[in-house]
Design a protein that fits this description.
The longest helix is centred in the last third of the chain and has 11 residues, at 730-740. This protein has 954 residues and is mainly beta. The strands form 8 sheets. The chain has a 22-stranded antiparallel β-barrel. A 5-stranded mixed beta sheet has the order 1-6-7-4-5. A 5-stranded antiparallel beta sheet has the order 16-15-14-21-20, covered by helices on one side. It starts with 5 loop residues before the first helix and ends with a strand.
């Protein structure tokens, strides 16, 4: 595709994503059939969602647990695989994102953006991995994870306002003693995409169990799967159902006319015949190599007082691959004396620029730029540099973080915890095989087939008029220069908190639980680019440049929380509990704000409970939202209203196209969007204010004593973000302009001055999208979980079903924009906002049979409801099969056996039935997530695959 960096503006449009997290645990109920939370009796049993550490108190927020048993069955290579396909989680960036990948995996709870949830490790924040404040799930030390807990309500006052959609907290094993060696190997049925994971963990208690230390070392490797290796993506499909199959060369296109090497002249461009099949060089699974190191220790220095420290380091390398770079319709100064240019081409170029035949001939014979007859004309040129091979981006990340603190008891009922942490992340982007525009321009100004007019830097002329494979290796070596940038982020935190109990309230027998604390955080981020990478249009095929910039902000906070048991064990009230929390924040960039929550639980009879919570959050913009320089990159548009013959005979449409900068002489021949992409000019906005979110959940919990082993939870959630930091979708601009004649919307569309298209370099702004606080985001739905476990004559049988029904997922970029509904629908507009596809219904169901002396057999059924192409859009000309994706089911089968006391073997078959992904063309959605004619972050594109894990525990 044209550019990996349409991604940057896609991510900006997804509300400029970003934020990491802060948290501490709380207790939760065990659900029969799911993993239980079991710790030493001397330790408080806590789970995510509150800072109050009293196992007799229960919070009002729903908590979903992915326990150690499920982690073992999944055989995950990284943490994203543990939670990425849970119902209610929308696809974020992961290993299936190639054109738009950034070398890390992000979380998108509820589809409201990866900047509106937090990812924690042991209840504390992790250093961001991007300028957008996203947390890389790949840095989580999976080998030491005991469980992952996801809180989806009432989390902002506890952890910070960026927990609007919830929190994912990965909790490490405590007091690990012994040694564990684990190895996982996996491969697809087609023999590619191999995955390897090796972990060594050693730990020991010391000084009569007053202390413990643990060290874990891991290595992971994931090999690539190319789109050319799968039937769904081997050819690139257009919206009308036609495809590019054998288009492996790309003759030069001059002003949208194709050079024909057979007769040396230009002819009309025919998309389905002349387009280039870019699919084979793209990845469905991006290759990864990662090393990680994690260590932790704690020591009881005196009774009730413990010092602790942790440290982690991760080094990862991810490679992205795109089809060959080239000249993608930018404006070039084409010398009429170019030695490779055939006479017929020269004559047509001269005629299109009103140059007489005599002047054209004289210019063609000019000796060089100093010749009085020398002329060069502004020309749009398209030409893939297939001789250069694919575009490669290597992303190397080094991340470390250290913690140190002291915690303990002041009295029997009063506990304290004081800690500090510091983390840094550096991600280096190295681009190979992209090429530099200035050097290609220099190579066009040639005085002979072997000599450039400017010979600096060893210039070698470029031949654009061969058969599509005639650019010499020497010329390629001249303009194929590396370029890149380094993105650095840092986080420092100091936190202190007190938690404890006070007197009972009214008829309650359980004491009131409280927590008080203060926190200081400082964020920093910078992007340092080389000259090429930071200059608009210089690196070919990137879309937007990445100019150097930096920013920082800090926040001071105080917070408090109460859980009050009001009444217990009276007729009609087995228990009644109220909950409240508040956080006062002072941001250096946006000033003061207040976040709060209020809720409660009512258990009329033992085992039957009603719970609910309301929270008010105020989120401050992150560094990228504030400070990203304004640049021109790429967005998505399947069809331009001004393209081709659309304006012919339509005076009103013609006038709009011309007013946007299209030359009058190009009406009737304006090119369509190149590869379904158009230019987008946008960036950060230092005048942004805060966004406000109000959310609530209300639910039922049933653990009936009459049916031991059964647990049911159902929670309705509603989230509304006002003053949301957003960009308008392309349709928010094109719709009012072309359908309603809105002059203000039309003014936000600026065309190529030569051919009237929306493609080109920095001289074509395309869409002008300003980041504002005018957006509104609303989502609501129901989470359901049913778990049941029972003993059998041969062992134990358990079932665990987690489901989600999404009622609404609405996005409105401004009060005058369309209030777009994206539940059960897909399009470039929906993908512009959230996670591309949000099915109405989805569920995961696991059934596990534990058989004595044989092992465990477990079947996981993942089901996604059918979805439609966005129903309000005009579907004329779109292949009918692309307008609907039916419901999908995937089955994963796992067998686990304890071969010996110290040895466990796990075997799995994923996508057991080898279900193929849906084919919907490469142009129905956004480039990042609608890739390879399908949606690889939602649907399985790898096919049936096998994995085996061997685990030794001493």
């Amino acid at each position: 595709m044209l550019g990996i960096f349409r991604t940057r503006h896609y991510l900006l449009s997804t509300t400029l994503l970003g934020s990491v997290a802060c948290a501490v645990p709380v207790h939760a109920q065990d659900m029969a059939g799911q993993d239980t939370v079991v710790e030493d009796a001397s330790q408080t049993i806590v789970v995510t969602g509150s800072r109050i550490q009293n196992p007799n108190l229960e919070q009002s927020s729903p908590v979903q647990v992915v326990g150690e048993n499920e982690i073992g069955l999944r055989q995950a290579t990284n943490a994203e695989e543990l939670i990425g396909d849970l119902p209610g989680v929308s696809p974020g960036a992961n290993s299936a994102v190639n054109n738009g990948g950034a070398g890390f995996a992000s979380l998108n709870l509820r589809g409201v953006g990866t900047n509106r949830n937090l990812v924690l490790l042991d209840g504390t924040r992790l250093v961001p991995s991007s300028l957008l404040s996203e947390t890389d799930l790949n840095i989580i030390p999976v080998a030491l994870i005991e469980r992952a807990e996801i809180v989806t309500g009432g989390a902002s006052s506890v952890y910070g306002a960026d927990a609007i959609a919830g929190v994912a907290n990965f909790i490490t094993k405590r007091d690990f003693s012994g040694a564990e060696l684990a190895s996982t190997v996996g491969i697809t049925e087609r023999g590619d995409g191999a995955r390897y994971r090796f972990d060594l963990t050693v730990g020991a208690n010391f000084d009569d169990d007053r202390g413990n230390a643990v060290l874990s070392v891991g290595y992971q490797q994931v090999e690539p799967v190319s789109q050319g290796d799968r039937a769904v993506s081997r050819d690139t499909y257009f919206l009308d159902g036609s495809k590019i199959g054998s288009g492996t060369t790309t003759p030069t296109r001059i002003n949208n006319r194709i050079y024909n090497p057979a007769d040396g002249a230009l002819r009309d461009y025919v998309g389905s015949r002349d387009a280039y099949n870019f699919a084979p060089d793209n990845y469905f699974q991006t290759p990864l190599e990662r090393y990680n190191l994690f260590g932790a220790a704690h020591y009881e220095v005196t009774d009730g007082v413990e010092v602790y420290a942790k440290g982690m380091f991760t080094r990862s390398k991810v490679q992205l691959s795109l089809a060959s770079s080239g000249m993608f319709g930018d404006t070039w100064m084409l010398p009429l004396n170019n030695p490779f240019m055939p006479e017929a081409v020269r004559s047509e170029v001269c005629a299109s620029n009103a140059i007489s035949a005599a002047d054209c001939a004289a210019a063609g014979a000019a000796a060089g730029p100093t010749d009085p007859d020398y002329r060069e004309v502004a020309t749009t040129i398209n030409r893939r540099f297939i001789e250069m091979g694919p575009r490669i981006r290597n992303l190397t990340t080094n991340q470390f973080q250290v913690w140190a603190g002291v915690r303990g008891s002041i009295t029997e009922t009063l506990k304290f915890d004081v800690y500090g942490l510091h983390g840094e992340s550096d991600r280096k982007n190295s681009n190979l095989g992209w090429g530099l525009k200035s050097r290609v321009q220099q190579a066009l100004r040639a005085v002979s087939e072997t000599e450039c007019a400017d010979t600096s830097n060893g210039c070698v002329p470029i031949n654009l008029f061969g058969d599509g494979t005639d650019i010499s290796p020497e010329s390629i070596a001249f303009f194929n220069q590396p370029a890149g940038a380094t993105i650095s982020t840092s986080l420092s935190v100091v936190n202190g908190s007190l938690s404890g109990e006070v007197a009972n309230f009214l008829a309650g027998e359980t004491p009131i639980g409280f927590a008080l604390g203060a926190e200081y955080r400082r964020y920093g981020a910078s992007q340092v680019a080389d000259v090429a990478f930071g200059t608009q249009d210089e690196v070919l095929g990137t879309g937007a440049p990445s100019p150097s910039f930096s920013g920082r902000y800090s926040v001071k906070e105080v917070f408090g929380e109460l859980i009050v048991p009001i009444v217990e064990d009276v007729p009609g009230i087995y228990s009644l509990t109220a909950e409240a929390g508040i956080r006062l924040s002072d941001y250096s960039n946006t000033g003061t704000s207040t976040t709060w929550k209020a809720g409660g639980t009512w258990e009329p009879f033992r085992g039957y409970k009603i719970r609910g919570i309301y929270q008010h959050s105020v989120r401050s913009p992150n560094i990228s939202e504030l400070y990203t320089p304004v640049t021109t990159g790429l967005s998505n548009l399947p069809e331009d209203p001004c393209q081709g013959t659309n304006p012919v005979g339509n005076a009103a449409l013609t006038a709009i196209c011309i007013a946007q900068g299209a030359p009058a002489g190009r009406i009737g021949s304006i090119p369509e969007p190149s590869a379904g992409q158009i230019n987008l000019t946008s960036g950060g906005n230092p005048d942004l204010g805060v966004e406000v979110a109000n959310s609530y959940t209300i639910g039922l919990v049933a653990t009936p004593p009459q049916i031991p082993g059964l647990a049911i939870t159902a929670d309705y959630y509603h989230i509304k973000v006002s003053d949301a930091i957003t960009l308008p979708t392309p349709d928010d601009i094109f719709g009012p302009c072309f359908d309603e004649g809105d002059a203000a919307a039309c003014a936000l569309i600026r065309r190529n001055p030569l051919n009237g298209s929306l493609n080109g370099g920095g001289d074509t702004p395309g869409l002008i999208a300003v980041l504002t606080n005018q957006g509104t985001i609303v989502t609501s739905g129901i989470d359901l979980r049913v778990a049941y476990g029972m003993s059998t004559g041969f062992g134990r049988l358990s079932f665990d079903m987690t489901g989600n029904w999404t009622e609404r997922s609405k996005f409105q970029a401004s009060p005058t924009g369309l209030n777009r509904e994206c539940v059960g629908q897909y399009s470039a507009n929906c993908g512009f906002f959230a996670g591309e596809i949000t099915p109405k219904l989805s569920f995961n169901m696991r059934a596990t049979a534990q058989i004595d002396d044989f092992g465990d057999i477990s079947l996981l059924w993942r089901w996604l409801d059918g979805v439609d192409y966005e129903r309000i859009l005009d579907a004329d000309g779109i292949e009918p099969d692309y307008l609907h994706i039916p419901s999908y089911s995937y089955l994963d089968l796992t067998y686990r056996a304890k071969v010996a006391d110290i040895f466990t073997l796990t075997l799995s078959v994923q996508n057991l039935l080898d279900k193929d992904p849906p084919l919907v063309s490469n142009y129905v959605g956004t480039t990042s997530l609608n890739s390879g004619n399908t949606y690889p972050t939602t649907y399985d594109v790898l096919g049936r695959r096998y994995s085996v894990t061997a685990r030794l525990r001493f």
